[in-house]
Amino acid sequence: GKAIDRNFDADLCGIVPALVWETQEKQILVLAIIEHLYQQGMLGVAEELCQESTVNVDVDFKKPFLELNSILEALHKQDLGPALSWAVFHRQQLTNLNSSLEFQLHRLHFIRLLSGGPGKELEALSYARHFQPFAHLHKQEIQVMMGSLVYLRLGLQNSPYRHLLDESHWTEICETFTRDACSLLGLSVESPLSVSFAAGCVALPVLMNIKAVIEQR
């Protein structure tokens, strides 16, 4: 209670221009919030805000966010299919960005096959053909994966290749997909609202101190 009052009891009216709440500026603010919600995957909340604020959001604006969030949701469930289809479709654009996303997705699928044990050895060997287009850039990584096949019957978890089974690979692929997909689509990885909020948190105390000094004169 008192700690909150001491730190947050501030009159912002003298700092924030009244025009921020006027119709046009308010609509810009609402659109920024809606974009942030779409980018964070909070699609239902974004739609609800659109309806309540009577702000019309074009379908073309929503489409990339809906697609990316759908793919990310699949990745969180360790389903690589949608992400691989997307990466193959955008292969040339990703190549232009020097992205290794498609290779990393194939690598992770190969590792999933390895985790299935000896029964998946032939399937893993067959899937390894997907590495051929990336051999000149990822030769060492491919050699490591192929070398791991030697330990498949003994169990990778007890081999020098146990790091291949680390669950952190799934977190990394989600981050890589988000970064590369946003770059390809001309979107910021961090939503404009997040960036503005962070900048505001830095600037606001300074502005409040200036306001306090002026009022004391």
From TrEMBL:
A Pfam family hit: CTLH
Entries under PROSITE patterns matching the protein: CTLH, LISH
GO cellular component: cytoplasm; GID complex; nucleus
Matching SMART domains: CRA, CTLH, LisH
One example of a Gene Ontology biological process annotation: proteasome-mediated ubiquitin-dependent protein catabolic process
PANTHER family for the chain: E3 UBIQUITIN-PROTEIN TRANSFERASE RMND5B (PTHR12170:SF6), MACROPHAGE ERYTHROBLAST ATTACHER-RELATED (PTHR12170)
Protein name in UniProt: CTLH domain-containing protein
Phylogenetic lineage: Eukaryota, Metazoa, Chordata, Craniata, Vertebrata
